[in-house]
Design a protein that fits this description.
Elements: H1 5-45, E1 55-58, E2 61-64, H2 68-113
Antiparallel strand pairs: 1-2
């Protein structure tokens, strides 16, 4: 049985939404990992003396930092940026998940109305 063109289009949109949701979830996981690493590094820096020799990344190079405060300030800025990014990705993911749930029901209802037994999504 051939599905109506409108329903086929909705299924394609649903599949794209599924891909977008997966991509955003993966991005969020990566940013959260980076945030945990940065937080852990800041905690470790508390255990070393102010006179310790530290290096900071600049592109692909490690450059000697002027002092511990410079590194802490850079990492604190990075941490704040990552926290904002995680919140934005979480909002985006939640919006996509809500649309995904709504589309799942819409497509399931449309398939049933068309006489097709939907498979579990």
């Amino acid at each position: 049985m051939a599905l109506p063109a409108k329903l086929q289009n909705e299924i394609r949109q649903y599949q794209r939404l599924q891909q977008d949701l997966t991509q955003v979830s993966q991005q969020r996981a990566q940013v959260e990992l980076k945030l945990r690493e940065t937080t852990h590094t800041l905690e470790e820096l508390k255990t070393i003396g102010d006179d310790a020799t530290l290096y900071r990344p600049i592109g692909g190079l490690l450059v000697k930092a002027q002092n511990k405060k410079e590194v802490v300030d850079l990492l604190t800025d990075d941490k704040e940026t990552l926290e904002v990014r995680v919140k934005a990705l979480e909002r985006n993911e939640n919006q996509l998940r809500e649309r995904y749930t709504a589309m799942t029901k819409e497509i399931s209802d449309a398939l049933q109305a068309a006489g097709v037994q939907p498979s579990s999504a």
